[in-house]
Amino acid sequence: MLEELLYKPTHSLIDQSLHSRLGVETTNGDGYGVGWYLPADGQRPGTLKGIGPAWGSRNLREVAASVRSPLFLAHIRASTGTPVQESNCHPFRFENWLWMHNGMIADYHKVKRDIMLAIDPDLFPDIEGSTDSEAMFYLALTFGLRDDPPIAIEQMAGFIEDVGHRHGVENPLQMTIATSDGERLWAVRYSSVHNSRSLFFSTDVEDLRRLHPDNPMLQGISDETRLIVSEPLGDLPGAWNAVPEAHWGVVQEGADEIHPFIPKRP
């Protein structure tokens, strides 16, 4: 069930919405969203979004207690200037893809026109909100997210930095990103200033069982279980590892991977 991770850990996402330890904002109350995949090939993911704070959402609690999913994304929002409305809440969805982002495009009002005009005209009608995060998603789709996510995101980042520099923005991009096609999940940590928002991945379950053989929670989860989080959900020794600055990783069946992230300029 989703509630096992959204509500039950010591420093769960719901707790983080009130008491973020590592985020820029201590409180993230400008909306929430969760997207999940069901174990059926080709199924479009479900989503639930709300404009209120996650800690007070009865709908989120009801859904989290009812939905069982092998892969889901969840987000709490602190607006960087765009309106608090459902279309601006993460995760964003296109076909079988989900996308969420922590960070910002600096001086977005200066570069927004150039970024929006670079999006594939066939994709443009699907944009619903006004955030820089959704624009990044559709720009990545334009650059081939569905074929090669790491390359597409590197091209997206390089394009945004190029546009920003042309408009006199010294450090255009701050981002940690999670995106999924329902089978794999990619996570990216990068910023133009090389001091990115926090991002962690959980240690391999078999290694954790060796470290904590008496922990009952570890006995009840799959060997393939992996969590990607902005902040650790608890204080279990050895459970959490920081994603290195300017790196991307993929969680997939079998061996997961992590590689350097290098923006590709136009």
Structural class: alpha+beta
Could you say how many structural domains there are in total?
2
- State which percent range the strand residues make up: 15-25%
Low-confidence stretches: none
- Provide mean pLDDT, rounded: 94
Helix content: 25-40%
State the name of the first-level CATH class of the largest domain. Answer: Alpha Beta
Under CATH, the homologous superfamily of the largest domain reads: Aminohydrolase, N-terminal nucleophile (Ntn) domain
CA gyration radius, whole angstroms: 18 Å
The end-to-end span amounts to: 43 Å
Short key terms for the protein model shown above:
6-stranded antiparallel beta sheet; Glutamine Phosphoribosylpyrophosphate, subunit 1, domain 1; Ntn_hydrolases_N; alpha+beta; EgtC-like
Kindly describe this structure.
With 266 residues, the chain is an alpha+beta fold. It folds into 2 domains: 1-90, Glutamine Phosphoribosylpyrophosphate, subunit 1, domain 1 (4-Layer Sandwich), CATH 3.60.20; 92-199 and 243-266, Glutamine Phosphoribosylpyrophosphate, subunit 1, domain 1 (4-Layer Sandwich). It contains 8 helices and 12 strands. It has helices spanning 3-6, 13-18, 58-64, 108-117, 132-142, 149-166, 205-211, 216-219; strands at 32-37, 46-50, 71-76, 92-94, 97-105, 173-180, 185-191, 200-202, 228-229, 240-242, 247-251, 257-260. The strands form 3 sheets. The protein has a 6-stranded antiparallel sheet. A hairpin with a 4-residue loop joins strand 6 and strand 7 (185-191). Helix 4 packs across helix 6 and helix 5 (132-142) crosses helix 6 (149-166).
